[in-house]
Write a structure and sequence with these properties.
Pfam families: IU_nuc_hydro. It is built from twelve helices and eleven strands. The chain is of the alpha/beta class. Helix 4 crosses helix 6.
Length: about 325
């Protein structure tokens, strides 16, 4: 078996693509899935994750529910891009999960899976970073069991939920700052700037839908998402943000990265949740460019990435 992987998620249409990508990849040992509030409230994200795994015929994968709100204070709003149930109103079309929800919470499941692993595990957080921040704060001893954190979030030059901030980071900036800027675990940030360039068009979605029941179901989740991204992209297509990050988690190096000092704005002003990516030339001077260095995904073979995701979702690889 290849990459040992845990996904932390808030499904979400693009989360559904990402979960299926991991679940259907023969070279991935998907140890578990943990859920967090985000695109929709926690009860919905948890139900969606469990039923998506059932759709992929993966009842072997445990699911545990995590944080229902951000670390510091409430008042967050859920995204509306994904429809009221997170899957364009189609969550009810998924099969009921046969495996019960784990009785332990998300952080407890993360700890047990990490401690039981005989080799370091990649964690792919593709929602708000609340569970991961709690894990690192309460269980620092598991750091050595984490190969790296590959997260979807942030932006170098843009936001989406606000002018400055990407949704996953904005949903819990304090948690994001802990994971991105203040911890020691190797981290790869996959930002909006790249995920938007990896958008897939109607022809790609048609191939997915024609591939069989799984592809047809995944494509059926996209109407609300398509309506939104038609305005953003100017054509019929979607941005599969989270699947881009999970592709890197599965296949290290499929995304090109550069090392930057990154911080997260946790103030109450208009830049709250912004990822500040320090691209100054003096990066090697810690006084001129202070802060922890992480990898930021900046480029990829766009057609190759799209084919990588499609081939695994359709079972052609």
């Amino acid at each position: 078996m290849g990459t040992k992987l845990i996904i932390d998620t808030d499904p979400g249409v693009d989360d559904a693509f990402a979960i299926a990508l991991a679940a259907m990849s023969a070279d991935v040992d998907l140890l578990g899935v943990t859920t967090v509030f985000g695109n929709v409230p926690l009860a919905m994200t948890t139900a969606n994750a469990r039923r998506l795994l059932q759709l992929c015929d993966r009842p072997d994968v445990p699911v545990a529910a995590g944080a229902a709100r951000r670390l510091v204070y409430g008042g967050e709003r859920n995204g509306n891009v994904h429809g009221a149930d997170g899957l364009s109103g189609r969550a009810g079309s998924l099969p009921e999960a046969t495996r019960p929800l784990e009785s332990q919470d998300a952080v407890s499941l993360l700890v047990s899976l990490l401690e039981a692993s005989d080799e370091p595990v990649t964690i792919a957080p593709i929602g708000p970073l609340t569970n991961i921040a709690a894990l690192l704060a309460a269980h620092p001893g598991v750091r050595d069991k984490i190969a790296r954190i590959v997260l979807m979030g942030g932006g170098v030059a843009r936001g989406n939920i606000t002018a400055a901030a990407e949704f996953n980071i904005w949903a819990d900036p304090e948690a994001a700052r802990r994971v991105i800027a203040e911890d020691e675990v190797p981290c790869v940030m996959v930002p909006l700037d790249l995920t938007h360039r990896c958008a897939v068009d109607g022809a790609w979605l048609a191939k997915l839908a024609a591939s069989g029941p799984l592809g047809q179901t995944l494509e059926s989740f996209t109407p609300d998402y398509l309506a939104y991204y038609r305005r953003v992209l100017g054509y019929d297509g979607i941005v599969m943000h989270d699947a881009v990050a999970v592709a890197e988690a599965i296949s290290p190096g499929i995304l090109q990265t550069e090392t930057y000092a990154v911080n997260v704005d946790t103030t109450d002003g208009p830049a709250r949740g912004m990822t500040l990516v320090d691209r100054r030339i003096a990066l090697d001077d810690p006084e001129a460019a202070p802060g922890r260095r992480i990898e930021v995904a900046t480029d990829t073979d766009l057609d190759g990435l799209r084919e990588f995701v499609l081939s695994r979702l359709t079972g052609s690889r």
